[in-house]
What we know:
Elements: E1 13-18, H1 21-29, E2 38-41, E3 49-52, H2 67-73, E4 78-80, H3 84-101, E5 105-109, E6 112-116, H4 127-142, E7 146-151, H5 154-161, E8 169-171, H6 177-182, H7 194-202, H8 208-212, H9 216-223, H10 225-234, E9 250-262, H11 267-284, E10 288-298, E11 303-308, H12 317-326, E12 338-350, H13 354-360
Parallel strand pairs: 2-4, 7-8
Antiparallel strand pairs: 1-6, 1-7, 2-3, 5-6, 9-12, 10-11, 10-12
Amino acid sequence: MTETSDTPPVRKIVHVDMDAFYASVEQRDNPALRGLPVVVCKKSPRAVVTAASYEARPFGIHSAMPAMRAAKLCPDAIFVPPDFSRYRAVSAQIREIFHRYTQHVEPLSLDEAYLDVSEPLIASPSATETARAIRDAIRTETGLTASAGIAPNKFLAKIASDWRKPDGQFVIKPRQIDRFLTDLDVGKIPGVGRVMRGKLEALGLAKVGDLRDVSPDVLRERFGRWGQRLSELARGIDDRPVKSHRVAAQISAEDTLREDLPLAALAPHIAQMADKTWRNYQKKAERVARTVVLKLKTSDFRILTRSYTPPVPPASQAELTDIACALCQRVDLPVETRYRLVGVGLSGFVDESPAMQQTALF
């Protein structure tokens, strides 16, 4: 069929994901660690794993795992404390490489980003070759490896980048989308975690192809807007553009406590996290945060969050602390419950506060 002016051009999206980034930086900078099971983790018996090298992963070690469990799984693992200032410096170096190839870069974290290379800044025969050139430049200039996924949209590119890890790349062309998705496990869909996967499998929807066979109306009725989104992704539809300037969705801080504590003893720790969050907010935020979020993790690793949007956004660290502490009253777990982690966040960003908007009416 001949392409008309109404037919949108096919995007060429690359998702670049650094391989075991934090652990790889440690191995690069300390040759004695190369080839060994390295675990990046705070020096605390109650810490959780930040990252694990590929040598550590066959033992079952992965990020967010309790450090003590990681040590049991691999007694020979070498634990090193994270150095985020160093990781940020390397990440900035990698981001500079991205911008040589395209103006459209959307960082997701220190170690991954989406790139729209539909119109690259270099002469390149294809998006595949552009991705290969980017990975080669990263290897040459940083001594690190990256994997890449190339596809017509962000959803598919992110899945593809994991397909040939480490140090590989995978392409999903438009004509290959249906075949690629048919037998893909629903757990590969971003946002489908263990609980959601169980719900889908209970309905006989174990593969993405199974989802595609279900009417969008049925999925929407069962799961609301998320059901509509699932239906679109099952068909390979994802119209989100690569956004070069990503506005922070949340600014937060959290910490694992030295010992499990009851809810009534958390106020000082909430105050510490509120102070850290407020200082980051003052330095980084370009907009006004309206919502306060309290995050808690119980001793059995259950995560719960409580949030509140006051009529007027918090204007000081003290107000943030007061609201976060008050959110404890909305935690309805048994009084004997113990908590191992506390976090405080700010979200719901707007261009200006409601009070400012109200003033502008008069």
